[in-house]
Amino acid sequence: MARVRVARQLSSAARGYVLLRYSYVPDMLERRQPHRAAHLEHWKRDIDSGALRLAGAYGPVDGALFVFRGKTRAYVEERARTDPYCLAELVPSTSTVDWTVVVGADLGTP
To answer: Where in the sequence is the signal peptide annotated (predicted)?
Structure first.
């Protein structure tokens, strides 16, 4: 049986996540190409710092989800506002939510 760790064993900072959701324009696949490299570069500093834990489109290409750790909603929202996809109006709406992880196999790595 897999061992599951309980979040109360970790500090609140270690379990605090922010989820960012993008909704894409209907013709995203056709319109994103000129902006894709800049979009990926935009998120590089958050990836390199470990703040952006996971990100990717959900299907077929309706939008994207981003999982941040150790950042505030205000920080994540500001980063989204300056994303080349958002500046090119490829993302008509975004939303953020604080997410407190309670259980999961990955809780052992703060």
So the answer is: none
